[in-house]
Amino acid sequence: MSTAIDRATAPERSRSRDRAALAGTAAAVVAAGVAVKLGVPGLAGDIAGSALYTGLLFVLGAFVAPRARGAVLAAAAFGISAAVEILQLTPLPAAVDAVVPAAHWVLGSTFAATDLVGYAVGAALALGADVVVARARLHSRRHRRHGTRRPARHG
Predict the structure, then answer these.
(1) 95-105 per-residue burial string, b: 16 or more CB within 10 A, e: under 16
(2) Is 53 exposed, middle or buried (0-12, 13-18, 19+ CB in 10 A)?
(3) What average pLDDT does the segment 96-100 reach?
(4) Interval 28-42: pLDDT, tens
(5) What's the pTM value of the predicted model, to 2 decimals?
(6) Rounded to an integer, what is the distance from CA 60 to the centroid of its chain?
């Protein structure tokens, strides 16, 4: 029996994601994350940054496993994000940050339950974008294979 997620991600089963496009996407997500971190204050910035963090994990997972189902990548990205957030309840991130200050960008420092909302949003948006891209690529391949094009829209 198929689930809603199975039906939504069906186009991606027979294809592999483009690693070059994923690398470019990862760079864009990192740049957006830095811009949000430095320029968007308050709760909106926190949630956007958390969503981008999880989105980056989704993209990195897709880069490593380009044939993985989007739902699996989204669940893994959310799970890793949530695990890192929960880890902030321990002294480990502060200890790592003392040795490697840049680790703060990955491990954070303070637990915030609202970040979990951002992670869920990021996983959902990444999955949605992945489905849209998969469907567009599938549609494009079908038209190339059959030598057809969409008729131009008038008016």
Answers:
(1) eebeeeeebee
(2) buried
(3) 94
(4) 999 999 999 999 999
(5) 0.81
(6) 8
